[in-house]
């Protein structure tokens, strides 16, 4: 099978792990990583890398043609907290990058697209518990508005032009390799670093702020899983709800205390509290489970064990 993959935004939190996974799965030379900044040493050494601005249509097209790309994973985006500070920049990045790849697919220059959406598509009027796939969606953040709009465009390009675009609504993602950048769920990564480094953490969300979360390995499995699914099984072409578990900062701190009993947490909520308060607490992802066989593997406590074991090496 002639598959050649381009990852746009490969140097970020998800892109770093996705690149490593896809290079193992398909062979290093078939997976071209790209970003506006270089990736980590492992990424740069393990396969081709292109400096690429996701908003520059000609540059994206040039890389696609030169490397005979079939599949694009568009991971470049400005996340919720940063987007509130730079609304127009966030809108331009999140929308223009999507149109660039959708238009390349419409014009038959690529075959398949993965584009991530987010739980941020939901808003304060959405039911918070077991949030259904289809429900009230009135996002109140710039990031959420861009993701909801992107979902509508994905479905439109699928129906109107037959573009094979696939998407999932990521919850907060936790990993120990590349750091997250500018999200509201970032505390759930930072807390592990601070727990190991200082034994304490000051959280920018309140103790009882429950949000949907997932360990990165499961998120990568879902991402590659939906891309490998038979086209007929991918029935939703806007974006699929996806879930593993939900927790609040207090519950996460209890999980950390099982390994670091002296760990303490304090709370000093900032503007990100309002963003978190507008999002669901738990997600109904039964359509992803039924349509293309999604299942998560890793629990909160398993995640904590993995995070602490790996980050311990960094803070020795
Ligand atoms: C963020 O917090 O902005 C992201 C997301 C939930 O999409 N992690």
TrEMBL record:
GO terms for biological process: L-threonine catabolic process. It comes from the Bacteria. It holds the Pfam family Epimerase. One of its GO terms (molecular function) is L-threonine 3-dehydrogenase activity. Residues 5-234 form the NAD-dependent epimerase/dehydratase domain. The lineage of its organism: Bacteria, Pseudomonadati, Bacteroidota, Flavobacteriia, Flavobacteriales. This is Threonine 3-dehydrogenase. Belongs to the NAD(P)-dependent epimerase/dehydratase family. InterPro entries: Epimerase_deHydtase, NAD(P)-bd_dom_sf, NAD(P)_epim/dehydratase.
